């Protein structure tokens, strides 16, 4: 087994999304979080594969990414808890109502500069890190169905 697979086996990735949101917002939030997470973690995407006819299929994630549901308050609590652990290799991506309502990235940046963390309402977060740490922080959450 190579070191990339060993690393992936000791890690876990989950999305935690406000389960009261409509299906479209949940799907959009999942997409935004996943794109950013994939950009941050080069090793999460597998190599391209080829079918019998030799047609190329781009690599996809090498690990399952469950989508868990929680309230905005619980999402914020989990985010704060994970940040408080000061773990160097944990990755946390967040998507807030500010981002969701912004028409441009410039608008999002400008609003965020004047907003305290207390005033941010998270629609979802993606977390990636040590499997035990992620399980402990998210183990009581259920899958969004």
TrEMBL record:
Which Pfam family, an example, fits this chain? DUF2000
Output the superkingdom of the source species: Bacteria
Protein name (database record): DUF2000 domain-containing protein
What organism, scientifically named, is this protein from? Chitinophaga oryzae
């Amino acid at each position: 087994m190579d070191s990339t697979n060993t690393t992936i086996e000791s890690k876990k990735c989950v999305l935690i999304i406000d389960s009261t949101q409509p299906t479209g917002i949940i799907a959009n939030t999942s997409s935004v979080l996943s794109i950013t997470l994939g950009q941050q973690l080069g090793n999460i995407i597998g190599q391209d594969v080829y079918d019998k006819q030799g047609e190329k299929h781009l690599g996809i994630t090498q690990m399952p990414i469950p989508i868990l549901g929680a309230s905005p308050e619980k999402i914020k609590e989990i985010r704060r808890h994970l940040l408080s652990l000061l773990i160097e290799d944990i990755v946390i991506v967040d998507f807030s109502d500010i981002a969701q309502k912004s028409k441009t990235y410039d608008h999002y940046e400008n609003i965020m500069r004047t907003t305290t963390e207390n005033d941010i309402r998270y629609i979802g977060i993606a977390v990636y890190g040590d499997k035990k740490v992620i399980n402990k922080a998210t183990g009581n959450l259920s899958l969004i169905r």
